[in-house]
TrEMBL record:
Gene: pheS
Protein species of origin: Candidatus Paralactobacillus gallistercoris
Cited NCBIfam families: pheS (TIGR00468)
Keywords assigned: Aminoacyl-tRNA synthetase, ATP-binding, Cytoplasm, Ligase, Magnesium, Metal-binding, Nucleotide-binding, Protein biosynthesis
Protein name: Phenylalanine--tRNA ligase alpha subunit
CDD domains named among the record's database cross-references: PheRS_alpha_core
E.C. number: 6.1.1.20
Subunit structure: Tetramer of two alpha and two beta subunits.
Catalysed reactions, as listed in the record: tRNA(Phe) + L-phenylalanine + ATP = L-phenylalanyl-tRNA(Phe) + AMP + diphosphate + H(+)
Amino-acid positions noted as binding Mg(2+) in the UniProt annotation, renumbered to this chain: 259
Length: 349
């Protein structure tokens, strides 16, 4: 058989083989058996030595053609096989991007902050300024300027943590009132302020006591301020927090920094004043302390008591939150258990 026939035969048998294989190893074997050192085409080319010189170009160009055809077919098939493998892998490793993502848990403001923010908004609306004082205070502002001199028995109720002899963790928000009284320029108008913040006392923690809690105090000092102004203001705030059905009453009380002093009660929201366990069968619930600012407090801050006077009040934010939401243990506010905190979604959803 002459070389050209041999070449055609190789081409005819090899090309279908290449197309039929779908295995890279097998494809490589075909390549070696045809184009390799000991391959059929290589052998044919070697045979060209024995040809007549006139025949060589023809055979040579056919050999090149066949070799190129086979090389191209192998290359093509290799791509086909690789593409198949890729498609199979893609199908097998498919990721379902339509799977819903895990929902993001959205936080809520702490219930104490919700009440604070709410009250701040209310008082800002009435023209009050919000004051931010110091958690670490001096005795002068926490006690002395508030008409609680050294050795006064009222200090017992507000024993606290001392940082130094005369530096302590504030026991109420009243020191802010003393500071504002000292700083205020009454020629520019009345003083109307609230001061919300964290206070400390040397209390044993139980369901209704905590060594730290939140208070908001307020103070209005101007000419001709009366107890009616105090009552109207507190009624407005209480209606805002506890609803307009609540009645309020003033009961005489004692605070060193106010005279007269009152405890403020609201009619029980549970029984509407009939008497139940929530109000201890009295029909009333005590919610805050207040009074007309004591002249000694004004004078200690250099305010002319012949011209100016006013009122002050102090309420416990924790107590408000407990009453509003029926919370029975004050410690829940400070344990940071999200199951507890998430119940108070407030205005935000
Ligand atoms: N400072 C008082 C307290 O912490 C609360 C209060 C403030 C009472 C203002 C009357 C007037 O107990």
């Amino acid at each position: 058989m002459d070389l050209q026939t041999q070449l055609r035969q190789v081409s005819q048998t090899t090309l279908p083989q290449i197309q039929q294989t779908n295995d890279l190893k097998q494809l490589n074997q075909i390549r070696v058996s045809v184009l390799g050192k000991k391959g059929s085409i290589t052998a044919i080319l070697r045979g060209m030595r024995d040809l007549d010189p006139q025949e060589r170009p023809q055979v040579g160009s056919l050999a090149n053609k066949v070799r190129d055809e086979i090389t191209a077919a192998i290359e093509h098939q290799r791509m086909v096989i690789e593409q198949q493998a890729m498609n199979a892998a893609l199908a097998a490793e498919k990721i379902d991007v339509t799977l819903p993502a895990r929902p993001l848990k959205r936080g809520v403001p702490h219930v104490i902050n919700q009440i604070l923010d709410d009250l701040e908004d209310l008082f800002i609306g009435m023209g009050y300024q919000v004051v931010d004082g110091y958690e670490v205070e001096d005795e002068r502002h926490n006690f002395e300027m508030l008409n609680i001199p050294k050795n006064h028995p009222a200090r017992d109720m507000q024993d606290t943590f001392y940082v130094k002899d005369d530096i302590l963790l504030r026991t109420h928000m009243s020191p802010d009132e003393a500071r504002e009284l000292e700083a205020h320029d009454f020629s520019k108008g009345p003083l109307k302020m609230i001061s919300p913040g964290r206070v400390y006392r040397r209390d044993t923690d139980d369901a209704t006591h905590s060594h730290q809690f939140f208070q908001m105090e307020g103070q209005v000092i101007d000419k001709n301020i009366t107890m009616a102004d105090l009552k109207g203001t507190l009624e407005y705030a209480i209606h805002h927090i506890f609803g307009t059905d609540r009645q309020i009453r003033f009961r005489p009380s004692y605070f060193p920094f106010t005279e007269p002093s009152v405890e403020v009660d609201i009619s029980c929201f549970n029984c509407d004043g009939k008497g139940c366990p929530v109000c201890k069968y009295s029909g009333w619930i005590e919610v805050l302390g207040a009074g007309m600012t004591h002249p000694n407090v004004l004078q200690a801050a250099g305010v002319d008591t012949d011209v100016y006077g006013g009122f002050a009040f102090g309420l416990g934010i924790d107590r408000f939150a407990m009453l509003k939401y029926g919370i029975t243990d004050i410690r829940d506010f400070y344990l940071n258990d999200v199951r507890f905190l998430h119940q108070f979604k407030g205005g935000i959803i």
